[in-house]
Design a protein that fits this description.
The chain is mainly beta. It has one domain: Beta Barrel (Porin). The protein is built from two helices and 15 strands. The protein has an eight-stranded antiparallel β-barrel. The longest helix is centred in the N-terminal third of the chain and has 14 residues. It is elongated, with a radius of gyration of 21 Å. The relative contact order is 0.19.
């Protein structure tokens, strides 16, 4: 929470230095996709067997939305952006039982972003930028239903500070309304810990709050969940 307040203070400080142009503020919203390849997490899911079978699917594409508020600074904007991304994998029914397993990943984050103009001609604008974030959720859910002994949502989570480099292309329909396509590369990874005490057992021992998610087998090691990769968003921005 202190980091969020620090980001907000920096945002307001930068905004106070805005130039005297006519467009002081920007509100934006977009539909986002994130290409991910968390190999260690996907391998772990294949190694956890329910009556001899692994769960379905692999994490590879998160989807969601972003909303942001920006203020003019020099030839660009400093913005606070909230992004919510997730992927729900296909439900798996454990053979010979009524138990259903639903795995998902949820990634919610607040970014401080600076975008600046590189090329502008007529209605076309191309720019670059960078962002630093603070996660509100970076959670792997293992939700099981259908049995009184196993009905629970086991959540493994972490705090992460993602870093991203950005480029964007926008087209102005009017002076204040723009269609925006942005492409980003983000670096984010961390080990996950259990967010509560659970009934589910690993090697005969119930999962306890703060326990680190580890590989299976004799030589167990902590799993580094790396959700780095390309991001893309398509949306609108209103300047005023």
């Amino acid at each position: 929470m202190k980091i969020i307040f620090a980001i907000l203070s920096l945002f307001l400080s930068c905004a106070a230095k805005a130039d005297g142009g006519s467009e002081k503020f920007k509100i934006a919203a977009s539909y986002d996709l994130a290409s991910v390849a968390p190999g260690d997490l996907n391998s772990y899911r294949q190694s956890v067997l329910w009556n001899g079978q692994p769960t379905s699917g692999s994490f590879n594409l998160l989807s969601g939305y972003s909303v942001s508020l920006g203020m003019a600074v020099s030839n660009g904007f400093v913005s606070l952006q909230y992004t919510s991304l997730s992927q729900m994998l296909p439900s798996s029914t454990v053979a010979g039982t009524s138990i259903s397993i639903d795995d998902s990943f949820h990634y919610n984050v607040v970014y401080l972003i600076y975008d600046f103009d590189v090329y502008k001609r007529d209605s076309i604008l191309w720019g670059l930028g960078a962002g630093l974030g603070k996660s509100l959720a970076y959670d792997f859910h293992q939700n099981s239903t259908g049995s009184s002994n196993l009905t629970e949502d086991v959540v493994w989570g972490a705090d992460v500070i993602p870093v991203q480099l950005r480029t964007f292309l926008s087209y102005a329909f009017y002076n204040t309304l723009r269609l925006v396509l942005d492409v980003k590369y983000e670096i984010v990874a961390n080990e996950l810990k259990a967010k509560d005490d659970y009934k589910r057992m690993i090697n005969g021992v119930p999962i306890t709050k703060g326990q680190t998610l580890q590989t299976t087998g004799l030589n167990r090691s902590n799993i580094n969940v790396d959700m780095s990769g390309l991001r893309a968003g398509l949306g609108i921005a209103i300047l005023f």
